[in-house]
Amino acid sequence: MLEHGGGLRLAAAQRGIPLDEWLDLSTGINPDSWPVPEVPAATWSRLPEDDDGLEQAARLYYNAEAILPVAGSQAAIQALPALRSSCNVGVLTPGYAEHAHAWQRAGHRVSALAVEAIEMALSQLDVLVIINPNNPTGAGFSVEQLLRWHQQLADRGGWLVVDEAFIDVTPEQSLTLYSTRTGLIVLRSLGKFFGLAGARLGFVCAQAELLAQLKSLLGPWTINAPTRWLAKAALVDTHWQQATRKRLCNDAVRLYDLLAQYELEPDGGCALFQWVKTPQATFIYENFAASGVLIRLFSNTSSLRFGLPGSESDWQRLTLALMKLTEAQVETGHEIKTLMVEAGA
Predict the structure, then answer these.
(1) Interval 329-340 mean pLDDT
(2) Among 236, 261, 294, where does a domain finish?
(3) H helices present in the chain, as ranges
(4) What are phi and psi of 39, to 5 degrees?
(5) What is the reported pLDDT for 3?
(6) Is residue 35 reached through a cis peptide bond, with omega within 30 degrees of 0 on the bond before it?
(7) Residue 13 maps to which CATH number?
(8) Could you tell me the pLDDT band of residue 345, with boundaries at 50, 70 and 90?
(9) CA 111 to CA 123: how far, in whole Å?
């Protein structure tokens, strides 16, 4: 099992800090989630039904002609490699590690590609996997560039798989409108923007024929009835969506400015998180954890991902953690600028 953000119980046990005393900024999930109303009792006593209106609501929200609900986009990530025979797959790096893991486990030949290496490698690939905006760097790709890459792959029977888990704040950058094109597969998630990660619901947008293959592989009743009910309600709540996009954009700027104020100016990010690359990533991570603030550490790139605080008290707590970090840096000689010079940054 790969490591992910959100391991709050483990962090609490390791550091002896009660679970309810932590501030979890490790996941990039909207901390002010869609307000879930009381779920009708009948949804618990009936098998899920495909004609309950969820697919229709999802097609409208995602602007996609054909769509398949899945048990979180992770379910599709794990299943899609089984729909192709062994081939050459390029996966964006750094990025969500489950993509490469799934293709490798299915017997495909996987190459980890930095953004600047994609153009050179494209002619040798059968499948290209992109995260847009990227997790954890926040790097974005234009619709025009992605469609150009898709066409080059599709011309020889290849696929472009685009994971858009964090794109809801900027829907104009999505490829879902084009997802009926042969060889284009777009993954969406209810967990990040709507803050409903516990519902385990995602969507695959692609040609109907491919979706039928994927549905057959996954089997019946992959999404429970209560989740289908609440997801439909969330997808049609346009008032909440519009207000939330505006709030998240403002909070993203606030988080950027706060980190920069304490010499942790982000190297990337999007509306739901900020990414900081620093030679003292482990030191910062441990210092925050000692204060009961959980952020995401990426040891292989010596970087950190900061999710958004929710309440005003959470913002104040993050500010206090940054102040304590500054004090600890002075006491231990871990000043950021000094380390960056030593590392040649």
Answers:
(1) 63
(2) 236
(3) 8-15, 54-62, 73-79, 98-105, 118-121, 143-154, 208-218, 225-235, 238-261, 281-290, 312-332, 336-342
(4) -85, 135
(5) 61
(6) no
(7) 3.90.1150.10
(8) very low
(9) 13
